[in-house]
Amino acid sequence: MLKKLLVALVFAPAMAFASAAASVQYQEGVHYEVVAEQATAQPEVLEFFSFYCPHCKAFEPFAQALNKSLPKGVSLTKHHVDFLQVAPPELQQSLAKAYVVAKNAGQGDRIADVIFDYLHTQRASFSNEQDIRNLLIANDIPAMLFDSGMVSQAVNDEVAAMKKSQDHYSEAKVLRGVPTLLVNGKYLVKFSGLSQQNFQQDLDALVAFLLAKKT
Q1: pLDDT per residue as tens digits for the range 110-119
Q2: Which is nearest to 104 in space by CA: 45, 40, 159, 183?
Q3: What DSSP line would sit under 38-84, residue for residue?
Q4: 3-state helix, strand, coil in the chain (%, to 5)
Q5: In CATH, what class is 26-212?
Q6: pLDDT tens for each residue of 160-174
Q7: pLDDT > 90? residue 10
Q8: What is the phi-psi region of residue 116: left when phi exceeds 0, alpha when psi lies from -120 to 50, beta otherwise?
Q9: Among candidate residues 80, 100, 77, the one with its CA nearest the CA of residue 153
Q10: What is the pLDDT of residues 38-66, one digit of tens each?
């Protein structure tokens, strides 16, 4: 009996918040924008980001937690952009490739944290692809894995798809900066509309709401 009571007490706050979140009426123009007439055929959550963006670094823990909260069969897809003025597009594309190599090896979140820390906490910089290579190897990505991945057709195809998606949403004036979060290709999350006290819970609930939205 005592064990059941303790379990109830532990989970009561979480359940109470979940119930409250479910009852929130998220509003177009406040919590999200409709940016396309039709949603994607399959549910998806897409984030545009850049390792050079300090706001993306701040958002990264929330993005990683969001990914773990998504329904089965849905994952957060991250597209690294190349349009920030702080580095040549080619170097930004090299970072995108390096991230994909790490992600495909099951190390995406960890290496993302490493790169963000290198650029924003250590305030270091990359001059070329070799600098990126040195950082990843120093953080336990095998040299052979990095070298083979960076010339892999599959990796290059994935980065090309990122670029194509970036160009599409930029031309549609949906992608206006980073981080940008899109749900089902139709709904743009407005971070300013989310609770600052319970940002993670509100973000997770809003994305779940938009994934299930039929119109």
Answers
A1: 999 999 999 9
A2: 159
A3: S--SS--EEEEE-TT-HHHHHHHHHHHHHHHHSPTT--EEEEE----
A4: 55, 10, 35
A5: alpha beta
A6: 999 999 999 999 999
A7: no
A8: alpha
A9: 100
A10: 999 999 999 999 999 999 999 999 999 99
